Amino acid sequence: MTQTVNHPISARWPATEPEKIQLYSFPTPNGVKISIALEEMGLAYEPHLVTLADADVKSPEFLALNPNNKIPAIIDPNGPNGAQIELFESGAILIYLAEKSGKFLSKDPKTRYETLQWLMFQMGGLGPMFGQLGFFYKFAGAKMEDPTARERYIGEAKRLLAVVDAQLEGRDWIVGDYSIADMAIAPWLNALDFYGAKEVTGYNDLKNVPAYVARFYARPAVDRAKNIPARPE
What we know:
Blueprint: E1 21-25, H1 29-41, E2 45-49, H2 54-57, H3 60-63, E3 73-76, E4 85-88, H4 90-101, H5 109-137, H6 148-167, H7 180-194, H8 198-201, H9 209-217, H10 220-225
Parallel strand pairs: 1-2
Antiparallel strand pairs: 1-3, 3-4
GO molecular function: transferase activity
Protein name: Glutathione S-transferase-like protein
Keywords: Transferase
């Protein structure tokens, strides 16, 4: 049954196609996970640009959808049993979309849990640690005279890259076939370029990671999704 989006967020970001999944996001590594998934899965959606400024993510309308004031978030007017569902946390959204579409999350129990394992690896390790690396290497933390934090996150980024590089040995993708684990992991690996941190983390010396990221971004759906919602001019 087609529903009409009924949520306070619609007052600030109105749906023009309310029968579609509504995506509230910004093209960061966490944000593009979901636009990539939607494009890969062929699910109809309407993107809304939610900037990282407090005026957007801390607005009452956005907080009504995600009290943690982080992108991305979605509303699916045709959720389980035809009822509207609202979700935040990119990992949870990826699992939901994979189950809704029946794509990119294996139905084989062993492969399914291995895929979820690597998705959690990104959520709990790769994303938070690389985000801290960006803060202390490129952004405000780079001005700190004490190098302790910067060195810690450079070292942790190197360790995590080595874990991914080892997992990719003899594989094109993280777990067997291309999956939501890749949609989660590859954008964060690519973030090292934005942070200007490839050299300091030894990225280019890795055996498998650079080719993996290039392979990921060569996918047409990824290329379409990497700037959805489009950044402001």
